[in-house]
Amino acid sequence: MEEFAALVDALVYTRSRNEKLRLLADYLTRTPDPDRGWALAALTDCLSFPAVKSSTIRNLMMERVDPVLWVLSRDFVGDTAETASLLWPDAKGAVAPPPSVTEAVEALGRMTRMSVMSELPKLLDRLDANGRYALIKLATGGMRLGVSARLAKTAFAQAFAVAVEDVEEYWHGLQPPFAPLFAWAAEGAPPPRTEDLPVFRPFMLAHPLDDVTVDLEDYVAEWKWDGIRVQLVHAGGETRLYSRTGDDVSGSFPEMAGALSFPAVLDGELLVRGSHQGGEAGGAASFNALQQRLGRKAVSAKMLAEYPAFVRLYDVLILEGEDLRDLPWTERRARLEALMPRLPRERFDLSPVVEADHFEHLAEIRSRTRDEAIEGLMLKRKDSPYVAGRKTGLWYKWKRDPLLVDCVLMYAQRGNGKRSSFYSDYTFGCWDGDPDAGAELLPVGKAYFGFTDEELKQLDRHVRNHTTNRFGPVRETDRSLVFEVAFDSVHASKRHKSGLAMRFPRISRIRWDKPAEEADRIEALRALVKD
Amino acid sequence: MPAPFAWIRAEPHGIHVAPADCWIDPSQPVERARVTHGHGDHARGGHGQTVATPATLAIMELRYATRDGATPVEYGETIRLPGGVEATYIPAGHVLGSAQILLEHAGERVIVTGDYKRRADPTCPPFEVTPCDVFITEATFGLPVFCHPPVGQEIAKLLKALRDHADRCVLVGAYALGKAQRLIAELRGAGHHEPIYLHGAMERMCRLYEEFGVDLGDLRLVSDHSKDDLRGAIVICPPGALNDRWSRRLPDPITAMASGWMRVRQRARQRNVELPLVISDHADWGELTRTIEDVNPAETWITHGREEALLRWCQLHQRRARALALAGYEDEDD
Predict the structure, then answer these.
(1) What is this model's ipTM?
(2) Which of B143, B261, B275 to mutate to test the interface with A (most CBs of A within 10 A)?
(3) Is A134 exposed, middle or buried (0-12, 13-18, 19+ CB in 10 A)?
(4) With CB atoms counted within 10 Å of each terminal CB, which end of chain B scores lower, N or C?
(5) Other C-beta atoms within 10 Å of A48: how many?
(6) Closest residue of B to A10, CA-based?
(7) Quick check: B198 and B220 in contact, CB under 8 A?
């Protein structure tokens, strides 16, 4: 537990992704089984101990600390687990050595709501403050250490010098402490079997099409839909829906879990039905509508009725035990088209192929498209197999040109890591009326630096020389600098003062030359809303 | 007969000693000031007369460029003030020159601690427990979550980070008066005799410590050296310079901060600190409560900090106590 606690502590203070990877990989290589497996499960929030809740911790503390001192401390620290770890009285007399992660996990697993009040203290007594913090976080869930499933898998691959795609594929069929995964990666045992399990297969991804043209003899075009890319898997009698990162999102979309009833692995775009958007088969709503459904643990009947989800299919990877990934795209496409009649129409449609005579024709089709559910075009090599990750020359994404608006810099915040001394994160706004008649700016978006180092220095200097107010790490600037901001779309939003939310805003140019009064007004942006 | 202790009163800008018409650590310029120690929130400039230890007066002179009205008093020396008040300066163990001030009048004894700690500090004499009727204590870390670990443990953490990253430097944010010099002295005590590099704002205070007999070893200025010279070295700067432009000249620094607030993870994260060092010149919760027990006053008055929790502790232990509302004390960086 001490090593795990030290890892947790180091991860808390590390913001660099590479350093996180190094810390995790180092821990995984030098920690024995099954401790490292349990630790991995804890870090990726795969463990659950229903007997231990935040209220359990509070109740335990109330038995040991004056309630007024507890509340004052909790308010100051801001986190129950941390406050408890600091306030837990040191055990009197001799105690057993700290438990291993495995011992702690097993003991936590045995606890019931009846026994937790007497059993959890026995573990806490054996640990120091850092150990107690790690144990309470592990027991109550939600480590919030910035360790995504993807990061953990990458660290695992780095630790044992194996391919991250293989880790992704084998991982999903396994339960903590993932013994077969470690046996395979660390000791060269045969890989875990995944055929009969609803596991995630790594996605095939695309490179952006920058200044390249392709021959439509070799490539086929499809729309790039603006939803979330998903993989729907049915195996061993179970159906799962996975996001791009391999996270299981089945719980948020129960209607999809019931929609596939034969063994298959399908690749597509998760969308929400909408009446007023284009697209051929029934139409999809904008990403804004889909967002209403994301990240929900419980889905109400009202949600299901108002925002019904469906998947627009791109590809088929595995069908009834047959792995199709090595076949060329044209053959997989034929298999996909052939299986469409077997799928319920309200939950699935097929992403159509975009017909064009030649590349210039396709460019023209792309430039005409302003359908809110379309992000651009995909270009896929007709003979491309389905391979994990981004392989040059097989698939390209060709996003439609962004929308542009001129905004005025309002606030700047310091960045992280190497950028911690630079004001590199900007909030900008549009005029709410005529600036010469005293109109104010309304903030419309926020974006990180997207420039050269030289420009970043100039911007940093500008912020420091034009500061009018300071709020902790944030500086308010005078209204003097114009940014040309590019974005993919803009939506109505109740969460923002301006009533607008931009999707993927980024600063495309710094307009040192442009007077701030000539920046755009909020009406210009509002006119682009197509919800 | 007047009410007990009516001759000493807490006003918003300091503690007023009525018979002598003088102020302890006033936050505004006054005619007669008695100053516990040299931190800016206790030792303001512009007073008519300032009575303090020689080290505190030297620190104030460094800061305000004047000795006007400076009246030195040694530790243990008792001075007579007007109105039948006697004042004795007693070591507080906080920083160089820091003192508790014992005030005696009409048979009543009152101690104003200023800031203090109970741990050993190679740069100043230790806190002396002195009996009194009213003990006016600070409460900067007056919450039971504050338990400063042994300083050796934190120094070892710092030296380990230094060893593990030979091509980087460890940049430690430390309060320019007291914390920085104690950190250096502790590092020397732990056997680290390499040059330590300073931010320009630290230099004069370190020299002053050396003039008062605190040996800090080989100190150099960052501005005299190239990036490569600083690889594998410890660099010390004021907390405000940690993430500022100044730090861009350093070789990929590991950002550390030496402060009692580093005990709380979120506090460290807010300041982008990668290596929190829980080193404080203030008493932690255990030291505060133990000191009240050791001194065992009839009344405890609590100032600047988290008064509420310490007040609660006094109630739970049947000790008469009250919180004073004094303005102008800052504790963010210590």
Answers:
(1) 0.94
(2) B143
(3) buried
(4) N
(5) 12
(6) B274
(7) yes
Residue B258 sits in the same domain as residue B158: yes
B180 CA to chain A: closest CA distance, Å? 22
**Stretch A187-214: mean pLDDT, rounded?**
87
Residue B224 lies in a domain: yes
> Mean pLDDT over residues B269-277, rounded?
90
Q: What is the pLDDT of residues B1-44, one digit of tens each?
A: 567 899 999 888 899 999 999 999 999 999 999 999 999 989 99
Could you tell me the CA-to-CA distances from A56 to A115, A136, B79, B166 in Å, in that order? 11, 10, 57, 45
Q: Which residue bears the tokens 């077969």?
A: A180
Query: What is the spatial distance between Cα A44 and Cα A21, in angstroms, rounded to a whole number?
Result: 14
Considering only alpha carbons, which residue of chain A is nearest residue B252? A418
CATH node for A204-399 = 3.30.470.30
Residues of B in contact with A65 (CB under 8 A): 144
CATH code for the domain in which residue B156 is found: 3.40.50
Q: Cα torsion at B187, B188, B190, B196 (round to 10°)?
A: 40
Give the range of the structural domain holding residue B159, as residue numbers without chain letter. Answer: 151-277
What is the gyration radius of the CA atoms in chain B, in angstroms? Answer: 20
Residue found under tokens 């590199």 = A424
Is position A224 annotated as part of the catalytic site? yes
Could you tell me if B262 and B288 lie in one domain? no
Q: Residues 394 to 423 of A: which have CB under 8 A from any B CB?
A: 414, 416, 420-421
Nearest to A12 among B247, B265, B272 (CB): B265
Q: How confident is the model at residue B327 (pLDDT cuts 50, 70, 90)?
A: low
Residue of A nearest to B261 (CA): A77
Pair B63, B183 in one domain: no
**What does the DSSP assignment read for B176-237?**
TTTHHHHHHHHHHHTT--S-EEE-GGGHHHHHHHHHTT----SEEEGGGS-TGGGTT-EEEE
| B265/A76 touch (CB, cutoff 8 Å), yes or no | no
Taking the CA of residue B51 as centre, how many other CA atoms within 13 Å lie in the half-sphere pointing to its CB? 22
With CA atoms as reference, the chain A residue closest to B243 would be A421
H or E element, residue B54: helix B54-64
* 3-class SS of residue A389: strand
Those residues of chain B whose CB sits closer than 8 Å to some CB in chain A are: 143-145, 147, 243-245, 247-248, 255, 263-266, 268-269, 272-276, 306, 308-309, 312-313, 316
Task: Give me the residue from B144, B247, B273 closest to A87, CB to CB.
Answer: B144
Sign of CA dihedral A159, A163, A168, A173: negative
**B330 found inside a domain:** no
In a domain, residue B331? The reply is no
Distance (Å) from the C-alpha of residue A69 to the closest C-alpha of chain B? Answer: 6
Q: What is the CATH number of domain A403-526?
A: 2.40.50.140
Find the mean pLDDT for residues B295-323.
93
Chain B neighbors of A68, CB-CB under 8 A? 309, 312
The ranges assigned to domains in chain A are 2-140, 204-399, 403-526
How many domains, chain B? 2
Residues B258 and B317 in one domain: no
> Considering A137, A153, A224, A380, which one is annotated as catalytic?
A224
Q: Same domain, yes or no, for B124 and B78?
A: yes
The answer to whether residue B50 is domain-embedded is yes
Q: Does A12 touch chain B (CB under 8 A)?
A: yes
Instruction: Report the CATH number at residue B70.
Output: 3.60.15.10
